[in-house]
Structure formats: structure tokens, C-alpha cells
User: Fold these one by one.
Assistant:
Number 1:
Amino acid sequence: MAGLLGVIVLALYGDSTTTYQDPYTYKEGFSKLTPLGETQEVQLGSFLRSEYLASGAPNKISSIQADIVDPRQVFVRADNGGDGGVIFNSVVALLQGLFPPNPSSRSSLANGTTVVGPFGGYQYIPIESVEPEQSIQLQGWTDCPNFEKHTKNFYESEEFKAKAKEAAPFLNEIKPYLFGIPNTLENIWNIYDYMKVNYIHNETYAYRLPPSYLAQAQALVDFHEHGVFTDVSSEGIGNVAGRAALPSIIKSLERLSVPTDPLALVVQEISYKPYISLFNITGLDATYPELHGLPNYGSALAFELRNNDEGETFLRTKFKNGTNEQFRTLHLYGHKEDIALNEFLYRLDLAAIRDLSQWCNECGQRTLRGCTLCRSELTPGNPFKMPFIENGQTENGQCSARFFTSPSSWGFTAIFSVFMLVTFAATKLIKSRKPRLSGYESLPTTEQVFDDTYLFEQH
Ligand SMILES: *[C@@H]1O[C@H](CO)[C@@H](O)[C@H](O)[C@H]1NC(C)=O
Ligand SMILES: *[C@@H]1O[C@H](CO)[C@@H](O)[C@H](O)[C@H]1NC(C)=O
Ligand SMILES: *[C@@H]1O[C@H](CO)[C@@H](O)[C@H](O)[C@H]1NC(C)=O
Ligand SMILES: *[C@@H]1O[C@H](CO)[C@@H](O)[C@H](O)[C@H]1NC(C)=O
């Protein structure tokens, strides 16, 4: 049947308080989603609802239950990297707009009483919080030494030096508006963030700031972030933010394309970094120069999986640059129309960082984020070979950051491995047969999420 099979949405967080990002490591300080940001996210959720869920929506996903959420049809996850929960809270707000309270969210009790959910039928939807210590997928750029080298090389490049020279008079002029924040081009993200946040939230500051300053700082931050989070090659380490996120997109598409899988909508709330890099990897960067800039709060990038009358599956990409912009179709890889799913998967596969061990190798990371274990596994003669990786998915024994992170757990690993082999074999028997690309760190499948054996494996 022709129509929309399912959608993956990559959503950007909303307005937040100032934060500090180290210009070399991109480690982040604390910040907080503001009521304005919460509103932007609820608006984004409502918008997505009107686009994909509501009855009469132009692009309704036919299989989805729109009013009372069926958690098997919706999969939601959020980067929970060290920003104080801005991204996670953003997706909580987004979901309130996507599946608003509904009086039908109720249950009848044995004694004849009917109970409606709190706040007029609020719906509590599971969200996977993706911790950088457990998964590299949504936060591929931190603790990645080769990425830090790439960043440093960019700062030392002729292009950067020329830009710094050109920007010097401006960076000097804005000193009185920075209250001690170092006014270098390397530090422009922190400069811009401070200016923007105060411009939005502080009346005195907004009145004082000369009109063109924010736009000038924005042009510089766009240059800076594009240089840091892209690379000349889509397989370069500069693109690590997008490349690490690709398996989650590939796996989602794969699940959406299987008719027997109930999954119909995937929402991943992310930082702006994977956006910049994904635009570069998918050739959008080259076709649409306006995408060079940072996306606005509450942006959404959507991959729509569609079938035509001939039963071919293809992909349409849409982007909405914040609350006030249109949701518009973008063409990937210089194409003029939708792209065949197979071509898309093939191209993404070339750029993807498939799993933790590849990430450790490409980043040159040997100890943090689970890489210790990767190394020990790669050592010849290591007797402990695990039968699965993250989320219990693979047969080829690559390392997992999720359960074991230190050598002290090896003994436990050995015993656990035997146990796992048995349960894993048992689980395999009851899983449905699906075509799949091998070797990716995976999303949990609906069967796993709802399968007691799987829950048992986790604990
Ligand atoms: C029915 O059970 C609920 C939950 O135990 C209780 O709150 C409610 O008061 C009961 N209603 C009646 C009429 O007994
Ligand atoms: C607003 O900005 C002014 C400087 O322009 C500063 O003195 C003041 O402390 C700021 N207010 C708040 C609440 O941050
Ligand atoms: C990606 O960005 C780099 C700059 O870092 C640029 O040289 C390259 O052409 C971009 N790739 C595409 C496909 O636009
Ligand atoms: C989003 O819009 C802003 C202007 O509001 C622009 O500067 C920026 O380049 C745009 N970013 C993207 C990714 O489209």
C-alpha cells in the first residue's frame, strides 16, 4: 500500500540558560531549559502531531494510534550528556504536545469507579535517556582525542587565522558586553551564547546591545561550529557527531520498513552538533548554503519512510528551522527528489561509526567510555568473548560499554557470558526473522522492550 510507513524525527532542544562549552574539548557546563524553551518544545510536539498523527493530517502515519499512545508504536530517546538535562527535559515537553492529555486515558476499577489520568489524562511515555558513559551514539564528540586534534588543527588553519584577523575589530568592540568572557574567535560559542541568552532574557542587556552585534556574532559562531563539526570527507573524524548517530537512524529505518514491526515513530532529542555534521554527511550542506548556520531552538529534521504504488520504499527529508519556520523538503546527496531507501542506507553505511570498538579506534581513545574493555577484547587470547553488545544485539562479540567497564568485572563477565549465551540463544528462537544490516549497535526492538527475558537480561 502506498503511503507513509513511519518517521524518524531528530529534534533540537529549546531555549535554555547560558552554558559554558570548553572550545577544545566541548565539555559542557550546567544549564537549564527555560519556560520559553518548554513552550517551544510543546509547540514542536503539537506541530508534529498536526503533521503526522491528527486525523486529517496531510501526512498521517496510517498505522499509528494517535490519541492514546501505544508505546510499541513510538520510541523516544534523548541525549543525556552533561548539560543538566536540557535535552532530556526538552523531549518531555515535546511529548506533551505530541500526545496531549486525553480524558480517554483512564481505567475502570473493579469497584465500578473510573479513574482518569492526572492533569485531565496526561500520558506518561517511556523515554530512553542516552548516557554518554553507556553509549557513544548521541554524544560521539566528547572524550574523543582525535576529534580534539581535528578541532585544534582547525584553529591553527590558515582559514581560521584569516577569519580571526577579520573578526578582531569586532571581538574588541564587544568586550564591554561580555563581562570578562575571553573575546577570542576560539571562544565564540560562549560569546554568542552569552549574548543571545541575555538578549532574549535581560531587558537592560537587550536595550544596550548595539543592533548588529548579535548577527555578527552569529555569523562567526556559524563559521566556527561548521569548521569544528564537519570534515572534508564524510568519513572524517570531524564528522564524528553525525557518524556516531547514524546507527540509530539506520536501525530505526530498518525497523520502520518491516511491516510486522509496530514501530511507526521515532523521536530522538539531540544537541545541535549532530545536526551540523549530518547536514555535511548527507550533502545537504553543499546544496543548501543556509543550512551552514546553527539550527534555531525547537528545530526538527525528519526522515519520512514512504512506499509508492509499485511497492518501492523511499525516503523524504524535511527540516524545520525552529518554531517560526516552515517545514520544508530537502533533497539529499544532490538529488532532485526523494531518495531510494537502499541508496540512503548504502551511503549512510559508508560513514557510520558502527559500534564502540570502531569509535575507540577512530577516536584514539583507550581508557574512557568503555574503551578499556574494547582493548582487552581485542587482545589475542583473551578468553572472555561476549556473545552480545549493547542492548544484547549482536553475535559477533564486539565490546559493550553498557554492562562491563572495568577489568575488575572480568571474572563476572566469564560467568555471565555463559549465562548470556543460554538466554541469548533462547531469546533468538522467539524473535521474528527480519532482514537486517549486521554489526550495528542497535536500538532495542519492541519484542525486547516487552519481553520479560530481555528485561531480565538487563538486571
Ligand atoms: C474504588 O477504589 C478506589 C481505589 O482503591 C478508591 O479510591 C475509591 O474510593 C473506590 N470507590 C468506591 C465507590 O468505593
Ligand atoms: C542584565 O544585564 C546587565 C548588563 O547589561 C547586568 O548588569 C545585569 O546584572 C543583568 N541582569 C541579570 C538578571 O542577569
Ligand atoms: C563538509 O564540510 C567541509 C568543511 O569542513 C567541506 O569542505 C565539505 O565540502 C563539506 N561537504 C559537503 C558534502 O558539503
Ligand atoms: C536557521 O535560521 C537562522 C536564522 O534564524 C539562520 O541563521 C541559520 O543559518 C538557519 N540554520 C539552519 C540550519 O537552517
Number 2:
Amino acid sequence: MDEDKARKLHLDTIAVGYGYDPAGGQGAAKPPLYLTSTFVYPSAEHAKETHRIFFEGPRPGEVVEPSYIYMRLGHPNLDMVEKRLAALDGAEAAAGFCSGMAAISTVFMAHLKPGDAVLHGLPFYGGADGLLNRVMAGFGVRGFHFTDGLDGEAMREAAERAMAAGPLRLIWLESPANPTATVIDIGLAVRIAGEIAERQGVRPLVCVDNTFLGPLLQSPLACGADLCMTSLTKYCGGHSDLLAGGVSGSLELVGPLRALRTLLGTTMDPQTAWLLLRSLETLSVRTARACESALKIARYLKAHPKVAGVTFIGLAEPGSREHDLMQRQTRGTGSTFSFRIQGGEAGAFRFLNALKLLRLAVSLGGSETLICHPASTTHYAIARDRLAEAGVTEATLRLSVGLEHPDDLIADLTQALDQV
Ligand SMILES: *Cc1c(COP(=O)(O)O)cnc(C)c1O
């Protein structure tokens, strides 16, 4: 199947088989797993040619057969995942990494240098926050944030502060954001990136962390973003049994990531790539089921007297800013959201300890329903005033709805809420 044909197919169809041709796998219906760290060259000349193509790229018009060197530089299962992910994200190219954080680290290191400023929404993933505002800060990169991702003036005001510190090179948007599930208008941020370009002469890259919705429910590149990062550990992997990350975009922006990952050692391994190819096949049915159950559970929680509030685009009122954004930017609600419980940390802990079916664990997007208390777990290392600004309180819980029967989940929530 060539690329043009893939563009005309539904994403659900691409997710099933795109990127693997049985003709290249001795007719095997499913992709073979190429479990090898190194690849044998038929001749010394071929070895030199393979390295020339790896380091310099093909000559204009040169057609090259896939050839491999060493697992960290690339391997057949990685090629398959990257083709499928690029097609799903509507991108020219994609790069696979050994975790979402490996992908984020590689993007930051490839596209930022000392003196640069980064604009980001708050909250965002605790690991990305730590990497940017603690580690990258040590290399002279500074982060600036806004909290209302639907308010252009708030974004522009934060962009002003960023530009005053150095060239604003990267706008990092996580929508919906971890852990609260608040949303950001990607198109609005892209327009602001254009305004910034006129002011400072260089356009900041707009990169979206698409982990919460994944490629089937949100296409950041179609909204004008330059790069789309996804923690494939979550919904794409879907079974809480692997760690992986992917970045999609133009070859011009993805190429440097591929080059850098071979030096950082952040490449995705064959076993993980193989598992992902398998998991992506069921992404659309898993997504549909989880979204439906999440909506049911969110409605139940919202009506419960011991729940102080639910943050979920699935519950956005028609006419609200969130609802308008959802219509423009997403094809579904996702199934991870947050809610606040009466009684602060003590109430939240009593509730968590009483749950029998829902599992108390970090991570999200797996087949099983997971719940966690972000302030004491995923966002433990984030300063308290910063968390408060991000809208994460001692009473906030993050729920990732899985594939169990929703009535069983609601029954468990009911008995645990009775004990708060
Ligand atoms: C989990 C997560 C990441 C990090 O991905 P890993 O695969 O765990 O490294 C990044 N962003 C978001 C929104 C996440 O939920």
C-alpha cells in the first residue's frame, strides 16, 4: 500500500495493517520480530554505502532499499511502527523512542540551546516539567507558562515574558493536560507562534503532547502544530506492559531527532515496536469503549454529593469554551479525567484505600481502570505553589477508565465513596 492510498483510508484501517507488507516477511500474516542488535553486511562496499545513506541521506532521486546497521540506529520493526504512526498522525515522518520521556528529552535537546525560552501550559506531565524546569534550566533554557489554554491574552502575556528572557524557540502544549485534563486551543497557539515570528524573526516550534487523546481522537499537525509527541506507553500500547514514545512531523524536524536518538540511546527496541504494532490494531475499539464508559462514570461522579467537581471535556456544556474547542479540535473525549473529592487528602486517601476493583497506580490508557492522587504521586516533585496554580489540589484524583464493564466500576466507586 503506498502512502497516497493510506491517506484516503480511515485511521482505524491504517491502525490495523499499515506499515507491514507480508511480501517482505516471507508471507507471514503478522510482522516477524527482528530480535537482533546488529546486522550483517554482504560486503565491505555495501557496509560503506549503508553508512553513507545513514549519515548523509539518499542522493536526490536515489531509491534506496532499507538496510540496517545496529539496533540503536534503526531496525525493521521500528520502521514499521514509524510508518504506521506517521500515517495515523498525518505526518511526513515519525520517530520512535524507548519512552515518552525519551521522546521529550530528544526533542528538547535537538531543538533547544542555551539562552532559549520555552512557553508551556500548566499543568503538564510531571516528568516533562522536571526535565524542562530543573534539568534544562541547568543548561540555560528557561520555561514560562500560562494556565488558561483557551485565553489568547494569557498566552500572549506569558509569551512576552518568555521573549524578554531569550528567543522563544518552543511552545509546548499538552492537551488535555496531565493530570487535570484541562484543554489548550492548539490553533490559537499556532497563530500566536506566527505573531511571535514577526516580532523576533524566528518562529517558535509548536509541539503538542497528544498522549491523553492519541492519534485517533486528535490530530495536532492538522491544527498547525509542527511536531506531535505521544507517550505510546499509554493508549497506543494500551495494556500497561510497555514503555514507548513517538514524535511525528516533517522530515526536516523529525530527521534531527532520529540522528540524536542514536547518540542519546533513546531508540525504541524491536520487542516494544512489535507489541505496539499489535496494540495499535485494537486502538479504535478500545478507544470507543473506554470513551463511552468514561462519560457514564464522569456523569455519575458529577452527580455524587461527595464529589466537589469533575474536569472532563466530555462534560463540557454546549456553548462553553471547552465545548467549542472540542468541536473544532477533537474527535472524541478520551477516557482520562480528574475529579475532586470532599475532605482533602484524608478524604481522598480513605476513598482510594476503600476501592476494590479500581487499581491505585500511576499511568493511564491501559485496559484496566487506574486511579491516582497526583499531588502525592505523579506530581510529587512539583512545588506546591506551582501545583496550586495548575489547579491540582490535595483533593484531586486522576481516573483513567479502562475496558471493564462500567456498571462494575460504578459499583466500586459507590461503595468507596460511602466510606469517605
Ligand atoms: C506518561 C506521559 C508522558 C511520559 O511518557 P513515558 O512513556 O512514561 O515516558 C508524557 N506526557 C504525558 C501526558 C504522559 O501522560
